[in-house]
Prior knowledge:
Blueprint: H1 14-21, E1 27-28, E2 57-58, H2 69-75, H3 83-111, E3 119-121, H4 132-136, E4 141-149, E5 152-155, H5 168-182, E6 194-200, H6 204-216, E7 224-226, E8 229-231, E9 235-241, E10 257-260, H7 264-267, E11 276-280, H8 281-284, H9 295-310, E12 314-318, H10 324-332, E13 338-340, H11 343-352
Parallel strand pairs: 3-13, 4-6, 6-9, 9-10, 10-11, 11-12
Antiparallel strand pairs: 1-2, 4-5, 7-8
Amino acid sequence: MHTRPSDFGLRTSAFGRRLQNLQLSGIRTPRSPSPLPSPSGRGSIIGSTLENPSRLELLQRGPWFSLSPRERAGVRGNGAWKSQPAGVLQLALGFRIFLLLLACATVAAEDQPKPLTRVHAHNDYEHKRPLFDALDHGFCSVEADIYLVQGQLLVAHMRSQVKPERTLEKFYLDPLQERVKQNGGRVYAGGPEVTLLIDIKTDWKTTYPALRERLKKYSDMLSTFTGDTKQTNAVVAIITGDRSRKMFAGETVRYAALDGDLEDLESNPPPALIPWISSNWTRTFHWRGLGDMPPQEKAKLKEIVNKAHEQGRRVRFWGAPDFPAFWREILADGVDLINTDDLDGARDFLLQR
């Protein structure tokens, strides 16, 4: 996949495009001599703060602001300047800017997708716009595979696909942090915690120390862990792939948790250490989503889910069928997350439930 680096900067959202088209009633950049000249007669009395800081004029009167003919006479031409109309002008301009900001807030609320907490963007980095495509669809969980190459954490599915510009920071950490700042401390304004599942593809003994240093720089948005206590924030990092509980040895504050296996349901570690259980579907089940799920497999699935939930963990299966009939069954049986590559299909399925 060949993509320009600029494709992965903060996107121009539909909100941004709509905002560019908004116009304040009665405010525009001058095209002709100002109807409200300054006392010296040398130009407009108001400088534009929207397009050209040196020129702004009121060309029309809205329902909230109107000058009487007497007042208009006092401010036109080269006659004496009236302080009262100038104050009214400033008040009116401020009020109209307030109305614009109010309209912008309404547009932003309408523009934000509904956060979907029961779906995970598997191998998210393989989409045309990593992270942004998933966020545009409302996903609250995304996955990034990383390789440690010459001191950089590079995002790719295979070692042969790494490129120096595809860093974890550029693809995920930086845009997530910017979005959190824009949305009042959350990835989705007023929304839930979002999961960044980081799949370590190189030896954790060398990769995790580099990853921890990166994550520490983004601690203002990350959920953190002290012992068995979690401090929830906008984004939680969960490490999968080549990992070990030993990687956290000696840490008083952690910036990530671990993805668990089915075996962890037997040892029951603290959920602050292992909040997720992930497993290969075909390792435990033979049903592939066609016809009814065999009763014995259905019972086994519910047993796994119930045990995980009793321990305070979520459940995800990878290597599983990826279509609505399968999604419908596993959600009905309590599985927490659809693991999918089909962003459109999964979003539409969840919104229609």
